[in-house]
Write a structure and sequence with these properties.
Layout (H helix, E strand, L loop, with lengths): L1 E7 L8 H12 L5 E8 L21 E4 L4 E5 L5 H9 L5 H14 L9 H13 L4 E6 L3 H13 L3 E5 L13 H14 L5 E4 L2 H10 L5 E3 L6 H5 L11 E6 L8 H13 L5 E6 L4 H11 L7 E4 L4 H9 L3 E5 L8 H8 L2 E5 L4 H10 L12 H9 L2 E4 L2 H18 L14 H24 L2
Parallel strand pairs: 1-2, 1-5, 2-4, 5-6, 6-7, 7-8, 9-10, 9-12, 10-11, 12-13, 13-14
Antiparallel strand pairs: 3-4
Length: 451
């Protein structure tokens, strides 16, 4: 069985959609002839919010978990001074000082092996001194992992694969000005230069990465849902006393969440619907609360804010609900939609063509419109799998919600008759990645023979 070293900063038990991708490799690689060795950092879920990302690890020593199907190496993690100040004094104090420290490490980590993330490099290097692996793969962000893999690949003559969950230098949210974009592009081109292959999650990312590295094969390995979790779902419909709507994950500036809540509030105020809204692990809790207290007071007591949950718990909570809210991310597919379709609950897709939502897109969406980019990836998937309702605008939303409320009132649940979701499982995507890795190993061995 070939051995693959995986560098993954985000990894369970940390609650992150980014961690689910490498976790699926760890979980399924052995079924396709690969033995995974994951290098990650120690994680805890002490806070249940964004502070978990910078909280210290549980031990100063490396923790190793071994089994017949894979190994996880959890390196020690100590926050830098900026993060220690944040944890101790909160977000309002030492802001400029903390930003300066963060900026220092963000830049210098690409020149030297310093900063809190460097523990992964040291852990990988220590492992490779004692064990041989056949391939290395890093999934990013953070993109400094590409530097680590590039160096390890050169040192140990091992093929490595760069897996992009997002764009690096071409990410408008990450690089706010042209200088930062230029510096990032220099690092990016340099460190992926010796990669054997590149994988990414969508055609959009592939097209952009291809501009930087056009002589290397770029493979699309989409995200997906956890097959094992979907198998555990009951076939029986969950009957709730009230119509329930759930939303999970980050809210972005181009999402028309205010518009959505205003529609709900108006219907609720006029006794058109009775509804409960669950917001799981959102990133703008206080902003939403402030908005509701000012503009949607009628439904403020019908909205529940739930901290981040582990993926399996979140999945089953979503499956208990009646409707799953999904905002339009246009040319970005995202990860959330796969768990939504696997939960087999009707998706409310907002919006296809709402004037307010389009204005938000024009102002905040980080990817400039390009005709070669599919601007309706989520919509296409929902239509293909018959897993939701495409809401055109806020007026359409009012009509749909009233209709669904009557259906729920009559039956106690909302029907969802999705089809053909099996090919979007993470296990299926992991099988495709395993073949790419095997081909990279084969190509390296062949090149050694013919030298």
């Amino acid at each position: 069985m070939k051995k693959v070293l995986i560098l993954a900063y985000d990894f369970p038990p940390y609650v992150s959609v980014g961690g689910l991708r490498p976790y699926s490799w760890y979980k399924y690689f052995h079924e396709f002839g690969l033995y995974p060795v994951v290098i990650t950092r120690q994680w805890g879920n002490k806070y249940g919010n964004h502070l978990d990302y910078i909280a210290p690890g549980e031990s100063n020593e490396t923790i190793v978990e071994e089994s017949e199907t894979g190994t996880i190496i959890r390196t020690a993690y100590k926050p830098n001074l900026s993060n220690r100040l944040l944890l101790k004094y909160g977000e309002k104090r030492f802001r400029l000082f903390r930003k300066a420290i963060t900026a220092y490490y963000e830049f210098m980590q690409f020149l030297f092996f310093i900063g809190p993330k460097a523990g992964l490099y040291r852990g990988a290097k220590q492992y490779l001194k004692q064990h041989k692996v056949d391939a290395i793969i890093a999934t990013s962000e953070p993109f400094v992992l590409f530097k680590y893999c590039s160096k390890l690949s050169s040192t140990y003559k091992t093929p490595w694969i760069a897996d992009y969950r997002d764009l690096w230098s071409q990410n408008g949210n990450r690089n706010k000005n042209k200088l930062m974009q230029l510096i990032s592009s220099i690092f990016e081109k340099y460190y992926i230069n010796n990669a054997s292959a590149i994988t990414t999650v969508s055609m959009l990312l592939k097209e952009n990465i291809h501009k930087l590295k056009n002589k290397i094969k770029i493979h699309i390995i989409p995200n997906g849902y956890d097959t094992d979790l979907s198998y555990k779902l009951s076939d029986k419909n969950v009957e709730n006393k009230k119509l329930q709507i759930s939303f999970a994950g980050s809210i972005y500036d181009w999402h028309p969440w205010q518009n959505f809540l205003m529609v709900i509030n108006e219907l609720y105020k006029n006794d058109k619907i009775k509804v409960t809204i669950y917001l799981y692990g959102i990133n703008k809790v206080q902003l939403v609360k402030d908005f509701c207290n000012k503009h949607t007071k009628e439904i403020i007591n019908e909205i529940s804010f739930i901290p981040k949950l582990p993926n399996d718990k979140l999945f089953f909570e979503l499956a208990k609900t009646d409707l799953l809210l999904l905002f339009n991310d246009y040319s970005i597919m995202g990860t959330k939609i796969y768990n939504y379709i696997a939960a087999k609950r009707q998706i409310l897709f907002c919006y296809k063509n709402d004037s307010e939502a389009l204005n938000l897109k024009k102002t905040y969406f980080p990817i400039k419109k390009n005709d070669i980019h599919n601007q309706h990836l989520q919509e296409d998937l929902i239509n293909e799998t018959n897993s939701g309702i495409i809401i055109n605008n806020s007026n359409h939303l009012q009509k749909v919600l009233q209709k669904l409320y009557l259906e729920h009132k009559e039956k106690g649940f909302i029907d969802c008759n999705s089809v053909g979701i099996e090919k979007y499982s993470r296990k299926h995507q992991t099988e495709k990645l395993a073949e790419i890795i095997k081909n990279s190993i084969l190509q390296l061995n062949c090149s050694k023979v013919y030298r």
